[in-house]
Amino acid sequence: MKSSIKANLAAHRGDLRIDFARGLANWFILVDHVPQDAVNLLTLRNFGFSGAADVFVLVTGYAAAILFGKMTVERGFVVTTTRIFRRVGKLYAVHLVVFVLYISTIGWVAAGYAAPDIIAEYHVVGILSDPIRMLMHGLFLLSKPLNLDILQLLITLLAVFPFALASLLRWPNLTLSGSIALYAAARLFGLNLPAYPAGSTYLNPFTWQLVFVLGAWLALHGGDLVRSLQELRTLRLLAVAYLLFALLVSLAGKDPALHSLLPDFLVSPFTPNDRDNLAPYRLLHLLALALLFTRFVPADGDVFDTKAVQPILKCGEEWLACFCGGVFLSFAGHFVLITSPNSLLLQIGLSVAGIAMMTAFAYYVSWSKRQDHAVRLGARA
What we know:
The protein is mostly helical. The protein has one domain (3-380). The protein contains 19 helices and no strands. It is globular and about 65 Å long. The two termini are 38 Å apart. 39% of the residues are buried.
């Protein structure tokens, strides 16, 4: 392991930007997953090419590299590998429970409230035609009910992370180059995993792995480079210019009147936004955001001490529970909207209520963990 990597790992001390980014991403994902909700016009995906999913995967790769990189230094690679696979097992078990409950809930709601369109909308047609086959594909993460794609992607990426981590600790730049090569090959040759009942996975793991690996590389090896790039005023201005360009193009893609004012060659290459295969312009947008955010928001910034930010940090700290809860909350919000007289006030109320319930759930999970920890300490005493 390079001494510079050990130094980078030792320098990481409770970066609250990780929890902030994942918590805010959880809020955005919840709102984004409710169709016909005006509030989701305010989320990240409407102001540029990348969205909450991109931030979520990048930050998770960054956090995983810090956690398991330090563990490798302190306890060795063999122990670290077993801890990674234990984490994968936990995520997989959570996914199975959520998957079964989710598709069962959708099927029950569709049958009980005479809303058969929900079955097709949430891509769970197999629950009626061939439930056993759908469940079997779910075991292999190949069923693709709507809104579970991020969790399925993270399980896949973490399952191969021990190999990526070993390579990153020895040959960080070569590993990143290999990740870029795999990304390019996947886009060039159309590599992806099959999905049930048809097509391929929503978030292509062969392309999205680059976001995860890039986050890990930045945590282990890219600190000095990022700090030097942040000091380049010209680069910061270019990043701002690109974000403004992405904002203009994204708004034009949704507003025909604005689209008509811009030349087609300026908008068409970015419309529709290639999310599934992670278009290069989307990745560049994410990097521009990360560059400016980390430049102007320090890891120990006073903003993280304010009461208004604490709920976001808590949702980032308990990201798995919040994400899983958000899957059901978004479905409930969508169901209310399609079965009630829709209005802007109702949409706002549902979004606020959903975020409040997610945040309350995060605080409960955190409190429950503390109680379990106190019991364990008392038993040892």
